[in-house]
Amino acid sequence: MAGLYFEEFEVGRKFEHAVRRTVTETDNVLITALTMNPAAVHLDKEAAKDTEFGEPLVNSVLTLGLMVGISVSDTTYGTTIANLGWEKVKFTRPVRVGDTLHIETTVVAKRESRSRKDSGIVTFEHRAFNQRDEEVASCLRAALMRKRPSA
């Protein structure tokens, strides 16, 4: 199992995820269509020329999804029971088609579950950066994590 159990997380531990992802125009069009977001800034190159950005921007739902998704294989793959929520989601710079994102995750809190003896809650801070190492997004994510099975 690639993910870590509750006991293996330590507050302050930082993960610099090796997987990077270049965002394509197809990615942006698909997520924008799938989420029913018809905003011209995501889909219309001609309309986007007249914005302060001068070109289409990547839908922030994709940015958030990649930021969390890239972290999974190093942290929670197969050991998470459920995501409990995202807080303080911020998009600090626009993401454009062709940007390559890399992600850092830090464990910022953990505690035993009050209702489940087999699990605990870990809070992660995820941060996304573009190819120029400029932060483009961040969030806190709380996850209900499995404890290591008894032998």
Would you give an account of this structure?
The protein is of the alpha+beta class. It has a domain at 10-24 and 59-146: Thiol Ester Dehydrase, Chain A (Roll), CATH 3.10.129. It is 23% helix and 34% strand. The protein contains 4 helices and 6 strands, in the order ββααααββββ. It has helices at residues 25-34, 40-43, 45-49, 60-75, and strands at 14-16, 21-22, 80-90, 100-112, 119-129, 135-146. Strands 1, 2, 3, 4, 5 and 6 form a 6-stranded antiparallel sheet that branches. A hairpin with a 5-residue loop joins strand 5 (119-129) and strand 6. The mean pLDDT is 95.
As a percent range, the share of strand residues is 25-35%
Instruction: Report low-confidence residues grouped into runs of 5 or more.
Output: none
| Helix run count | 4
Classify the helix fraction into a percent range.
Answer: 10-25%
**CATH fold node name of the domain at 10-24 and 59-146:** Thiol Ester Dehydrase, Chain A
Mean pLDDT: 95
Largest sheet, strands/sense/barrel: 6 strands, antiparallel
- Give the SSE order as H and E letters: EEHHHHEEEE
- Kindly provide the radius of gyration, computed on alpha-carbon positions and rounded to a whole number of angstroms: 17 Å
| C-alpha end-to-end distance | 16 Å
What's the CATH superfamily of the domain at 10-24 and 59-146, by name?
Answer: Hotdog Thioesterase
CATH class category of the domain at 10-24 and 59-146: Alpha Beta
Structural class: alpha+beta
Total E-strand runs: 6
CATH architecture of the domain at 10-24 and 59-146: Roll
Silhouette: elongated
